[in-house]
Amino acid sequence: MEVRKVELFLLEMRLREEFRTSVEALISRPVVLVRVEERGGEEGWGELVSDWGPWYSYETYEVDLLIMRRFLIPQLLGARLESPEDFHTLSSKVRGYPMAKAALEEALLSLYSRLKGRPLAELLGGRREEIDSGVSIGLKPTVEELLREVSRRLEEGYQRIKIKIEPGLDVELVRAIRSQFGGIKLQVDANGSYTMAHFPTLKKLDEYDLLMVEQPLAYDDLIQHAVLSRKLSTPVCLDESIRSAQDVVLASTLGAAEVINVKPARVGGVLRAKEVLETSKALGLGAWVGGMLESGVGRAFLVALASHPAVTFPNDISASSRYWEEDIVEPPWELTSRGTIRVPREPGLGVEVKEEALKRYHEGEVVRGAVSLASGLR
Ligand code: OSB
Ligand code: MG
Q1: According to CATH, where is 3.20.20.120 located in the chain?
Q2: What are phi and psi of 255, to 5 degrees?
Q3: pLDDT greater at residue 368 or residue 215
């Protein structure tokens, strides 16, 4: 595999509805698509998911663009790769920036998948024909609005509901959902917004039979998660705290988590995410595939990864329509009547990038800041 061209497309994609978490309120996402082309003309696509600001992670799309253009892409151009794994060797001298690495790795992986004629899921050790789909619901202005949203998502067929919580907006929400919807599969995600000072509140969550509480405490505090985990009957799931398979070993050794949310972008790529899944399984931890509000391109990798047998819970992988008026792939990702998403059997993404939709989003209005998103980056 010899990449002769790397193209970056900078889009701004407006979400159908605001997505609010304890760290930010998002109305649109910067989406950078990576297209790689190899000598024979075959192509691959990947997606950069870093945000406008360093809120969920220290990475931002502008810093990642700099890291990709200045360091990662020059290393890649002209290198001969036996497989996408070689990209990790190549980029190992660049410290950090897992999201920037993941975007390029995805592009190489989908290229490789096409060159070999083998579906992504198969390359990742996936076995399932469809994956269990859950939905992540942001903080809402009122409990009534939250209940309406939960009701709508259950009607659409999602297998489990995850709601965002933060101090002051937690037990009341869970109680309201339980009283209206009974024993549905339900979990909460705090995005690190609590401390042990909130322990009495977190302990109250134990009464509601939640599948798990995701990242209750700070991203850099495994020790406190280990302390909390011993005091809660609700399983603790880690998202932001897990950067690698090694972190899973550490978390398991400390007893800081019983479940791992696995996101390719957070751990430096889809191949790394597969390792995180396998390590979780080997250590007896539960696991599922999380999301970063990916466009249809990034979603292809989430779906393929979630077909892996180490996945033990429904995933944060929803249909295109949960996020976008119009996705940039054809066909869009759809929910089956069983609340699942079908795993493509075709090599590559398994969906086509719609170049004309890409142009439309290119020309989208500039909402923020210094960089002209309309001008693109080709
Ligand atoms: O904490 O899991 C999270 C989205 C962006 C950043 C962080 C998170 C999320 C989600 C949405 O919860 C998951 C999805 O539907 O993609
Ligand atoms: Mg999370």
Answers
A1: 122-349
A2: 75, 35
A3: 215
Number of the ligand 1 atom closest to the C-alpha atom of 240: 1
Q: Among positive and negative, which fits the CA dihedral 170, 176, 179, 185? A: negative
Amino acid at site 358: L
DSSP states along 65-112: HHHIIIIIHHHHTT-B-SSTHHHHHHTTTS-S-HHHHHHHHHHHHHHH
- What values do phi and psi take at 131, rounded to 5? -115, 150
Q: Is 164 among the catalytic positions?
A: yes
The CA–CA distances, whole Å, from 319 to 157, 340, 341, 349 equal 11, 9, 8, 15
Considering only 20-29, 141-150, 280-289, which range has the smallest mean pLDDT?
20-29
The closest residue, in CA terms, to atom 13 on ligand 1 is 291
Q: Is the pTM of this model over 0.85?
A: yes
Q: Which ligand is nearest to the CA of 21?
A: 1
Residues of the chain with CATH 3.30.390.10: 2-118+354-368
Q: What six digits make up the tokens of 59?
A: 């990475």
**Ligand 1: which of 13, 51, 55, 56 to mutate, most ligand atoms within 8 Å of CB?**
56
Residue 203: active-site member:
no
Average pLDDT, rounded, for the chain: 94
What are the C-alpha distances in Å from 318 to residues 29, 157, 292, 322?
16, 10, 11, 6
Preceding peptide of 331 cis, ω within 30°? yes
Assess whether pLDDT exceeds 70 at residue 369: no
Tell me how far the alpha carbon of residue 162 lies from the centroid of ligand 1, in angstroms.
10
* CATH number, domain 122-349: 3.20.20.120
Looking at all shown ligands, the one closest to residue 23's CA atom is 1
Question: What's the CA dihedral at 77, 83, 88, 91 to 10 degrees?
Answer: -10
Q: Are 242 and 265 in contact (CB under 8 A)?
A: no
How far is residue 73's CA from residue 65's CA, in Å, rounded to a whole number?
A: 10
Instruction: Please give the single-letter amino acid code of residue 193.
Output: S
CATH 3.40.30.10 correct for 2-118+354-368: no
Token output for 368: 């923020």
Structure tokens at 203: 């302990």
Query: Of 101, 140, 162, 263, which is the active-site residue?
Result: 263
Q: Quick one: which atom of ligand 1 is closest to the CA of 189?
A: 1
